[in-house]
Amino acid sequence: MARIANLMCIMVLLCAAGAARSEAGQTVLFDTGHGERFLTGEKGALQLSGLAEIFQTAGVQVASLAKPISDATLAEANGLVIFGAFAPLDPGEIEALLRFMQRGGRLAVMLHIAPPLGPLLDRLGIAYSNGVIQERENVIGAEPLNFRVNRLGSHPVFSGITEFSLYGAWGLISRDGGARMVASTSPLAWIDLRGDKIRREETTASFGVAGAGEFGNGGFLVFGDDAIFQNRFLDANNRLLAVNLAGWLK
Question: Is 5 a domain residue?
């Protein structure tokens, strides 16, 4: 009986050690190889040190990826974040990302300028508007570029959240059913095609501001704005959104 008890004790210890290794192995990479200017290691108002701290508190190891995206550089990662890229991904990098998700990896994209990530978004089944959104409901500080979003669909990142804030967002559109919009503006929003903040014949519509989809054993989440997780804008709701994002990525 003592021998059996000892064996059971050893098995419990091994399982606990395995669980600890599994938790310690939850790594999310932040891409820094495509002109990103907002970084997890910087503490300025527009930087991401607050987001990194939230991830670390949630049990996620945060690391930067300055090398090209490839099967090798993603091999040990659970998730990848592309935050405000200013340069496009090479076709080979996009293919590596698709294989990463196929294996179970998760991808989060936050747009600063949309065109550089157009080819990637195209593969995810997402199109973007030809300008940023001007909202007419839930506006923050009388600036139509800044607004709260409370039209939320079903997704783990919105668990316990009734609204979050955006500060200059591109409209997102599902192209072929590969992605679904999980957060949207009011139907009174519009795109300022002339850049003069005056609506003339521009049509009002509800635009997606977050799109999600499954890909193989993994999936992706795209936000039309990157300010959402910058230090300056981590209000209570955006902070909770960041906590949920950490859980989803790992």
Answer: no
